[in-house]
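ok so i was messing around last nite and threw this chain in just to see what happens. nothing serious, just curious
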Amino acid sequence: MLESLITSKTRLKLLLKFFLNPGTIGYLNELSNEFNESSNAVRLELNRLAKANLIKSENDGRTKVYQANTKHPLFKEIHNLVKKNFGIDLIEKIINQLGDVKAAYITGDYAKGKDSGIIDLVIVGNRINRNYLNELVTATETAIKRKIRILILNNEEYENLKENLKLDKSLVVWNNKNNIAKKGKKIK
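result:
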């Protein structure tokens, strides 16, 4: 979807990386390797996005790190476009219809802003109708053309496993207050 609007593939990858999960930070060489692009191409696009104030940067020793500028007036709109591109908006709708959900997290590649084709979703709650969930997931997978892997945990299982799940590096798509939580390291 966004590929038809944004012609620079590198710029698109950067927007997806930083605007899917606002807590994501990255540095030039890491991004260059991840995107399999030259560091000059990535640097050029990082500079353009920084000049537009869509991302911000900070020196961390000898390394410059980048992160989405959540205070930019267009941040929310770009964030929502990226979520729609990945199908995250449909996943939020699934969770809304399940009942007693305490939290839901996207983990793995999508939490890092990488479109691998498989969305890993951890749902925490009690009395979740698994048959209904499977119907919703099947319909959503067809709509977004991506596979959704789900791990359902009750509250006790969640407490026992949360350290191993590394949810601090995940994208929170739902919490029991019905809003999106913001996590991650912040650049000043």
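not much to say yet. The domain at 2-68 is CATH 1.10.10.10 (Arc Repressor Mutant, subunit A).
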